[in-house]
Amino acid sequence: MALPRAGRILALSILGGLVAGGILAAVSLVIVQPYTNAIAELVIDELIADGEFDEEEFDFQMQSIYRLQTLGSVAAGIVAGSLVGVTFIGGRKFNASPMMQGIVIAGIAWFVLYAVPSVKYPPSPLVIFYAEAASTFYPLYFGYTAVSGLAALAIIIGFKKISRKNKIFGMAAAYLVIAATAFVLFPEYDPDSSYPQALVSAWSASVSVAITVFWFSAGIICGVLWRFLAIPTSSVPA
Fold it and tell me: Where would I find the H helices in 30-130?
């Protein structure tokens, strides 16, 4: 692939990721924020009961959460778009449309970087309100995510020179062995929460929906941009 074309694909991928980041911010505002606000009310009640509620400090914390939701979505979009683009440029193409290839790449990234780590460490609303919970949760979560991502990368590189048609099954098996081993070795994290389980589950589910929409929208948007702005029509499978 010519360098100018690769650069164009990467630039379009980052653009697609930014659009997906905007979608993530919008979806989070619509479906996650109401549950976050409901949990915030419970946090306020706890702080008042303990005599530790500072309205100004709590308002600042909520504003920080809103900013992180917005700026974090933009940053996530740049990272996701770059990842999808680099994978498309450097990966082995298969006989499918650019949009389908984008969806497959984004789907694998979603599985490796979100679905698998979230099985071990599900999203917890406590970590956005309590620094002590965050200091325990995030190192475990990002550590497990790093292991999952690096394992997938190492397997892709290791199997790249193998030309057997069924190597995908070997790659999947190797990844699952590593992920399962890490699952057993990483310590458990069970946040102690007195909040209604239905509310916590609804918050966690809404986060999962938002992240899923984000990744697959990134794949679709990148694929569409590649198809119409970077790849000649003659190169696109019928």
Answer: 33-49, 55-90, 98-110, 116-120
